[in-house]
Amino acid sequence: MSIFKKLFGSRKTSDQPKEPVGEAALHADPAIRLHHVDHGKHGDHHGALFGFSNLETEAGVRLIQEMIAAATASPAMAEDRGVELKAFSFADTTPPGPAHLGLRAVSMEHQMISAFPYLQATRSLPFTTKDIFRWQNVNDLEADVLGNGRDTFGIGFFATNWLGRQADFYGRQKLEVRLSAFILVLRAFVPDPPAGDDQPTIGPDFCGYFPNEGLPGRTYYDFIGKIRSVAPAAIPGGNGYLLEVQLINDVENPDMFVVEAFVNQLNVQMEAPPQVGQQVTGVAWFQGEVV
Questions:
Q1: For residues 255-289, b (16+ Cβ closer than 10 Å) or e, as one string?
Q2: pLDDT in tens, 155-188
Q3: Nearest to 191 by CA among 205, 181, 212
Q4: 70: alpha, beta or left, given left = phi > 0 and alpha = psi -120 to 50?
Q5: What is the DSSP letter of 197?
Q6: Rounded to two decimals, what is the model's pTM?
Q7: Angle formed by the axes of helices 58-72 and 43-50, to 10°?
Q8: Which residue, 129, 144, 134, 128, is CA-closest to 35?
Q9: How far, CA to CA in Å, does 185 sit from each of 180, 247, 273?
């Protein structure tokens, strides 16, 4: 088990408030189902951002600890009863990285409670919330949200602005959200040869995504998609790619579901860099925020 799985695994909560921050003042829409889970953690998410091999090296662990410390020391962007949400952009590193990529941290009295990678998307879409899964192991200070995008396709995401916008997540079933993703592994998609004349094959334009069955939670998806855009991105300690990946192939609306994503170069299992128009596959962790 990596150090970050130890750091961001389940935590004891007996010495912390039983009620989640601000819960008494919030009124959930009756159409939204509320749940608790206790498996919330961010170790794999840091592996997606910084490269999984860096989680196993002393230099890599030190770098990630420094980035988390910088996020925890950053000014608060939201606050609720002494708990703060803080943001740290890679634009503030030396050399500067992408401004919309970095870390967010949840802290109380300058002590880090949680920290997670963050990619700000430019695209937004209408979203209907069906379920909210609150992370009981951090006293409901983080949550996963499940529902339908554009009243058409189902998707779940980790709520990056849950702290400070809980009233919106609880109280309004209809939201406008920005979705992004961190890709844990990326490969070129090579369809299997047909098993017989009556067996359909996956065509070169196929796009789709499916809940991952091996990772905990409801925000990981296996996918086959087409790269719409790609840009190299330098981050602290390494390099990666900012991608736009089409996940639904709708002839009438090609922008039905296009996600902006980041993949670390260390997590790319391809002989050549990703290219526009390429069909790729992998595993992605989805995050989102209320606009």
A1: ebbbbbbbbbbbbbeeeeebeeebbbbbbbbbbbb
A2: 999 999 999 999 999 999 999 999 999 999 999 9
A3: 205
A4: alpha
A5: T
A6: 0.91
A7: 110
A8: 134
A9: 15, 16, 13
Secondary structure tally for the chain: helices H, strands E: 4, 14
Q: Which pair of structure tokens corresponds to residue 189? A: 């998609």
Q: Taking residues 62-69, what's their average pLDDT?
A: 95
Q: How many CA atoms lie within 13 A of 143 on its CB side?
A: 27
Q: Give the residue among 3, 29, 35 at the shortest CA–CA distance from 218.
A: 35
Buried b (16+ CB within 10 A) or exposed e, 31-54: ebeeeeeeebbbbbbbbbbbbbeb
Q: Which two tokens stand for residue 169?
A: 């997540």
Residue whose token pair is 């030190």:
62
Specify the amino acid at residue 134: R
| Dihedral pair phi/psi, residue 273, rounded to 5° | -60, 155
* All residues at 6 or more sequence positions from 145 whose CB lies less than 8 Å from its CB, including other chains: 129, 131, 132, 133, 156, 157, 158, 159, 169, 288
Beta strands in 166-237 (DSSP E): 174-188, 208-211, 220-235
